[in-house]
Design brief:
Thio_Ohase/aa_AcTrfase, single chain, 22 strands, alpha/beta, Immunoglobulin-like, 8-stranded mixed beta sheet, fatty acyl-CoA hydrolase activity, 2 domains, about 25% helix
Amino acid sequence: MKGFVTVSHPNIVIHDILSRIDEPINISVTGVQPGEVITLHLIKKLNGERYLASKASYTADQEGIVDLGRQSPVQGSYQSVDHMGLFWSMEPVHLTEEIKCYIDQHQPSEPCDELSPQVSVLLLEMADIIVAHQAITRQWMSSDIENHSIQEEELIGSFFYHKDRKPRPAIIVLGGSEGGINEKTAALLASHGFSVLAVAYFGIEKRPKQLREIPLEYVESALNWIKEKKEVQPGGIGIHGTSRGSELALWSATLFPDIMATVSLNGSAVSFCGIVPWTEEPTLPPAWTYQGQPLPYLQPDNPIELALECKEMWVNRKGNPLRLWHDGLSKNVELLEKATIQLEKMHGDLLMVSGLEDESWDSATLSALGFTKKMQAHPSGRSKHLKYEGAGHYIGIPYLRVISTDQRTRQQLAQASVDSWQETIKFYKQVLCK
């Protein structure tokens, strides 16, 4: 890009310059010569000198229009027709000072928290000149949602509810091995008509520093708390767990009858050990406990040779050792059976989401071990196990930057996030909305 100039004819058309993160938007360019090639750049500032950007070039149709919902790029950061391709195909970039100043004009201040709106700038380039631009703001929750922080001895989290405070179905949200509070998923779920409580169970002040020996009483307390809120309608409660948090969600669904709708995202129906450094220590701690007792897990005895191999991979950055670790622990068939969460004891319905190229563990197989038994014991048309070709461990909120070790399957992962999120909303509404 050589510079900027004002041209009256080419125009970026976006009907929803203010939208929610999980909502698709339509982008088009008008006023271009038929057959002319244009390039769109989407740039977002993260913080400091960190930026994400994507770009793609398109050929205008016979009417001089480029419609991202109908046309594939001739080249760019994504390939096929996808009206949100510029969003999920973003990557870290180094910008020129000229472009930085221009982007910073639209986003002068850094986000103050993780729920701050995301502002991106769309630039239209023709013949190496920027001829039009448009800022796009994406929000984490609808304008009618309130967020209340909870800091109690038995409960730490964030409660998302509608401003009218009318009773709605409730969902509890549990994050994964990153720790803290998964507010983003909670905020978006609340925007679809639910009262949502995101619960912290480790990795935050007043909670364990590591994911080990986590008491299920944290979820039990959350259930007791949320049932008393006037913003929550009586009846069954939903729960949503991501990655390692799926184990916590599934254990809770088997132990607490109030839970009637469970979503396991990139998860496992097999319970693994707590997350601790790979060492030569002879034993591994449990991840979960209830009433002071460890819940069954893979595995109490530390496979030291495997642990040291994973440690070497991690220290020397030789790939991702997590898949090797979990596959190694899963080889003991007898222990695997004992550590499989007894989903046949669940009282409600279940939606499991797995990528068939999961880099961290074999989510599809590990989830199926419990799902099959549940369906044999309690057949249900509302329970599903969704498995996505080409998708890895980071299926999640749609239209965000895709993180994948295989660049060839990024679009499959992006589509898996769109489809599974729609299925998640539909599942909760079918089971919880009376």
